[in-house]
Structure to design on (133 residues):
């Protein structure tokens, strides 16, 4: 049975790791999502997951917290649904990655658009990861 849960250990909370994503990370984009990713050493955690992720929506574009939370919730849901396929492609790979999904849309998008963009971004990530080897 496929596990669609997002566990606590899969959330990226380390300020140091998040700052490193902005300084020297690889990026992949498909409107309205931008994915910053970097290979990191997260093995020190009790539960090791191949990917830790976080989501960001600009406060400058979306003044209301309700709108930002709406978008973040849909991005997390899209990631949750695509996570099993992503993990399947990362099996046997002893590398770990830090992800940051940034919403770059000018207006609020519907859930289906975000899910489509998430699928495309993750496909591009897998292609880019293979080319980096």
């Amino acid at each position: 049975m496929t596990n669609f849960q997002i566990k606590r250990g899969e959330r990226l909370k380390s300020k140091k790791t998040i700052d490193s994503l902005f300084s020297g990370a690889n990026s992949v984009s498909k409107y309205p999502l931008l994915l910053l990713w970097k290979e990191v050493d997260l093995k020190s955690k009790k539960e090791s997951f191949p990917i830790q992720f976080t989501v960001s929506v600009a406060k400058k574009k979306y003044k209301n917290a309700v709108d930002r939370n709406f978008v973040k919730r849909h991005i997390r849901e899209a990631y949750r649904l695509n996570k099993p396929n992503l993990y399947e492609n990362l099996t046997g790979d002893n590398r770990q990655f830090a992800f940051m999904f940034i919403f770059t849309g000018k207006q609020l998008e519907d859930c289906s658009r975000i899910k489509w963009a998430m699928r495309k971004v993750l496909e591009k990530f897998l292609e880019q990861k293979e080319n980096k080897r």
